[in-house]
Each structure stands twice: as C-alpha cells, then as structure tokens.
Design goal:
With 394 residues, the protein is α+β, with helices and mostly antiparallel strands. It has 18 helices and 9 strands. Strand 2, helix 6 and strand 3 form a beta-alpha-beta unit. Helix 9 runs antiparallel to helix 10, helix 10 runs antiparallel to helix 11 and helix 16 packs antiparallel against helix 17. It is flat, with a radius of gyration of 24 Å. The N and C termini lie far apart (60 Å). This is Tfp pilus assembly protein PilF.
Length: 394
C-alpha cells in the first residue's frame, strides 16, 4: 500500500489579488463555446452536482469540528488545525489515480491529488478557511489505451492564514499559507494560481476522463459540458468535447470545438495534436500545415506536454519531430533524465555523436544520484571513445 505524505510548508505567498494570472477579461468575454447538436449523445441518468462532490455527512462534519475546536488545538491558528487534522486522519491514506467525492475519500482513505484538494476544500468550507490552488507540473506516467494518452493534472492546495484585520487597507504583497500536497518533489514545476471555478472545471474533466477510460464516451461528453459550465475557457474540456464529436464521426462539430479551443490561451498542445489527427483523417492538407506550424511555434506552460508528443512521434518513426519535441521539453526541464536519454538515443541513431556528447555533458550537471551519475559518465566515456575511433585515419 502507498501512504500519503502531506507536506507542511510555511511559505510567503503573493496575495491572490496580485498573482491570479487569468487571461485578459475582455479577450475571454468575447469568446463563447460553439452551440452544436447533442443529438449524437445519450444523456446519462444523472451527473454529480458540485454540492455532491463536496458533501460530507453529519458524522464526518462533527468529527472534524470536534477536533478543530478541541482544547488541544486551541492555541493553533485555524489553517494549522485543519492541517493537523488531515495529517492525523490521512496517515494511512492510499494514493491512487482515482477521483472520489469528499465523503468517499474520508470514508475509504484513498484517492488522487484532486481528491485530496477536494476533501481539503470541503473541510475548509466548514470553518471558513480561505483555500487557493496551483497547478503543479510533474513528469507524467505514460500509458496508452485505445490510442488515448493518459495523464492528469496535479494540484497543490494552499490554506491561507486569516488576514490581519488591523492591517486592512494597507498594501499586502506577501501572505502566509500552509501547503497540502502529495509527495512533493524538487523537480516539480509550479504553475499558475487557478481560480475556484477553474478547479471545479478540472474536477468535472477528471471525471470525464474516468468515464472515457471506461468506454462511456456519452458520459465523458456531458461531464466535460459541466466542466465548461464552471469555466467556459478550460481548454482540456473543450478538447474532450471535440474528441467525442470526432469519435462520433461528426467532423464539422469537432472542427468547431477545436477551432474554439485554438482561440484560448492555455493548455493547447494536446488539443492541437488531436486537431492534427482529425485534419489528417480528413486529408485537409492546408489545415494540417496550419496546425503543424502552430505546434512547432507554441510555448506551453507545461513542459511535459511535449513528452507525449515526442513519445508518439518516436512510435510513428517521425524522428525529426521527436527530436524537436524533446528539445522543447528540455529547454524548460533540463533535469528530466528520461528525455535526456531519449534525445541522446536519437542523436546516436542519426550518428550525430558530437550533439549526443554535448547533451550528456549538460545532463551530468543534473545527475545528483550516484547511479544516474555513473550511467551518464559511462555513456560519456563510450561516446568519446567512439568519436575518437571514427576520427582516426584509416
């Protein structure tokens, strides 16, 4: 069994009013999702409402409130009390890649990072603790099922210290918060702050992904629609809806949704890749070229977005594309050893030994583990010897 490690960090956080990097409101206000027929999809009998996802039963609520207001916690600030409760309750929490409502998570002590964020938020609501969220970019687990790349967002939850009423009206540039997270790694890349509505959209889209993996494309479609009810500009939900139309061979509708997604300002790489697949199926060379140009020039906030593209390009023997994608990834995450080794392999394959040697020398700077350092040194020695051999006159 895997056990959670909830991390406690006392951090200086820029106040939410300063750091929420939302897109330009005027730009977003001018965009509206396409209105397309849903006749191709069968409406599920029921879909969870937000209140159901955040629901905790009376016993769970009382258990938490008794702890929160206990004499043992009396000297702790509110956010510390909530952290302590989670630390004690979830000591044996099993981390698994599944999405559960708050009640189930607290009953069964299991779930993924979104589940932990949801449970934390549900408890925080009971005692009026302000919660914030950030997207965290991690090296994804790669799995392919029915040509679907399986990945997920990682969320870090912040419990903000209550504002000092005596300082109201003054400019607050820093704000303390406690961080709730699974297995934080030094190599994690911290993304943007996200609004509660964006978090709600992510919850629904995760459920949509679960449905899709179970083969229920109709539920996936309607769950993504609910995600867009929370945040109409959440690109992964737009991508999911376009994919579901594609699966129904409703190419006109799929194109409308892909086109809408291309106007949004974040998380576009996966959407562009899926749109490229549709353009190829339709043999629309002009559209295909346009999408390829956008992919090559795009700069995604998430460097790991390029990893799936690189792996897929290798699988399809598109080695020049794979090389480009690995290089884009390593520009932002040069410490990602799997990508370094893959790119070295591609350089060797095309007999570009000087580039391979240079990359290994750079990668050594990020090899802190003895085993990793030994692996790179072995590769470097082999490359140097090989270059020496081929440079000798015959």
């Amino acid at each position: 069994m895997d056990f959670t490690r909830i991390v406690l960090l006392l951090v200086a956080m820029t106040s939410q009013s300063c750091v929420l990097h939302n897109a330009d409101p005027q730009f977003q206000a001018s965009l509206e999702p396409p209105v397309t027929s849903i006749a191709q999809f069968q409406q599920p009998a029921s879909l969870p409402e937000l209140d159901q996802l955040f629901y905790l039963n009376d016993k769970q609520q009382q258990d938490f409130l008794n702890y929160f207001h206990s004499s043992a916690q009396a000297t702790n600030p509110a956010e510390q009390r909530l952290y302590n409760y989670l630390q004690n309750k979830l000591m044996y929490f099993s981390y698994e890649g599944a999405n559960y409502p708050a009640q189930v998570a607290l009953e069964q002590f299991r779930g993924n990072c979104m589940t932990l964020a949801l449970l934390t938020s549900a408890l925080a609501k009971l005692v009026n603790i302000e919660v914030g969220y950030k997207v965290i970019y991690q090296e994804p687990l790669i799995d392919y099922k029915d040509n679907i790349f399986i990945s997920s967002n990682h969320i870090r939850t912040y419990l903000y210290k209550a504002a000092d009423e005596s300082k109201q009206g003054s400019l607050i540039l820093q704000r303390a918060a406690l961080v709730i997270d699974y297995f934080p790694e030094n190599t994690d890349l911290v993304g943007k702050n996200i609004s509660p509505t964006r978090f709600y959209a992510m919850l629904y889209n995760n459920l949509a992904a679960d449905a899709l993996l179970l083969g229920d494309s109709d539920s996936a479609f309607f769950l993504s629609q609910k995600a867009l009810q929370q945040d109409p500009t959440y690109t992964p939900a737009v991508n999911m809806i376009a994919l579901m139309y594609h699966r129904k061979n409703a190419f006109t509708e799929a194109m409308q949704w892909f086109d809408y997604g291309m106007k949004l300002q974040d998380n576009q790489i996966t959407l562009l890749t899926n749109y490229r697949d549709l353009a190829a199926k339709m043999d629309n060379q002009q559209l295909l070229e346009k999408i390829n140009q956008q992919i090559m020039s795009h700069d995604d906030d998430n460097p790991y977005a390029w990893l799936a593209l690189a792996i897929d390009a290798e699988r399809n023997k598109q080695f020049s594309h794979a090389r480009l994608y690995y290089k884009k990834l390593l520009e932002k995450a040069p410490y990602l050893h799997n990508a370094n080794l893959a790119l070295v392999r591609l350089y060797v394959q095309e007999q570009n030994f000087s580039a391979a040697q240079k990359l290994v020398e750079q990668a050594i700077n990020y090899a802190y583990e003895p085993e990793r350092l030994q692996l790179y040194n072995t590769k470097l020695a082999a490359l140097k010897q090989h270059r020496k051999t081929i440079q000798q006159p015959h």
